[in-house]
Write a structure and sequence with these properties.
- By secondary structure, the chain is an alpha/beta fold.
- The chain has a 4-stranded parallel β-sheet.
- The longest helix is centred in the C-terminal third of the chain and has 17 residues.
């Protein structure tokens, strides 16, 4: 159904600043894109990933490099969107071309942006409610498919924060 899968995410660090990263663009973006490869390896071999990337069937690209592009007949997955600004998300959403579908994922309780810049993901989700052709799915702790301990951690922290408010 789709000619290519595009996978993107913002290049945001989780609360630490490692400073300048040496190297070419591939080397600079590698630490930010590593989680995508880690997840792909759960489903296909490294050889298959390399083959799919080299054949152009999969493209992994940082969010900041999407400006000016249009994706036709692509399935686009944007991960960690809670770390994108509203402006970045609108830019990404408007890259959707003919025969394409885009899926944004994110957890607005886990943003690594400074407080002043948070909220773009939530704002876009609220702003797009009811738009024809847009579906919004909100998941909760019962939808966690990782190890059972993850659900217990999330539930405990939600309970802690709601009782301390």
């Amino acid at each position: 159904e789709y000619e290519k899968v595009i996978i993107t995410r913002p290049m945001v660090q989780a609360g630490e600043d490692t400073g300048y990263l040496p190297g070419n663009i591939k080397e600079k973006t590698a630490p930010y894109l590593r989680p995508i490869f880690d997840e792909l390896l759960c489903y296909v071999s490294n050889t298959d990933i390399v083959t799919l990337i080299n054949s152009g069937k999969i493209e992994i690209c940082p969010l900041g490099y999407m400006r000016g592009r249009n994706f036709h007949h692509c399935f686009i997955v944007a991960d960690e969107c809670q770390n994108a600004s509203e402006k970045q998300l609108i830019m990404l959403l408007t890259r959707t071309g003919k025969g394409s579908k885009i899926v944004l994922t994110g957890d607005d309780t886990q943003s690594d942006l400074n407080y002043r810049n948070q909220g773009g993901f939530s704002t876009c989700m609220r702003g797009l409610e009811g738009v024809e052709g847009v579906g919004i799915v909100k998941l909760n702790t019962e939808d966690i498919v990782r190890e059972p301990i993850v659900e217990r951690i999330v539930t405990a922290m939600e309970k802690y924060h709601s009782s301390s408010d």
